[in-house]
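User: Teach me something about this protein's shape.
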Amino acid sequence: MRTLIYTAFVSLDGVVDSPGGGSQHEAHRSGGWTYQDIEFRPEAYELKGRETEEATALMFGRASYQAFSPVWPEMEDFAALRQLPKYVVSTTLGQDALVDNWGDITILRSLAEVAKVKETEGGPIIIHGSATLARNLSDAGLIDRYHLLVFPVLLGAGKRMFSDTDKEKQMLKLLESESYANGITKLVYDVLH
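Assistant: First, the predicted structure itself:
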């Protein structure tokens, strides 16, 4: 069974929307908040490098796929991810919207299809961005681990990591935590199923 990992830059009030800036598909008044007024400390991003090394596939919701697919395939920072298989969870995205320079891309039409992918052999599947998908996967009990870099900022508005759905309690096990001089805190949790 594969491990489904949601990775996020998150504000203290739970916003994961547009941390690197807005796009034509998503606009956020505080877009780029991870770069504003927070000193860059390379050690705070070690987790992101490790994710790149350990990922065997990527998963996105439709909006994040549409924001990342025109940019990430050509970015040197994401070169190691180019040929990884990608999954896009969407009920509306057509095959004609898929780019052809970013490895094998499969559209999943339901959370049941995500669950089937999890049952296959292979290593970790990393979910970037995709706030709506993350909320739905969390509510369905399909996320196995969270990789969070919590930023010392309150944004007040934007897409949140967790829904307010009335669901059963999910316990988490802390695997890693570290605070950095710029105020960022790394939190890695396994979801206890």
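Now, about its shape. DSSP finds four helices and eight strands in the chain. The mean pLDDT is 92. If you'd like, I can walk through any region in more detail.
User: That's plenty for now, thanks!
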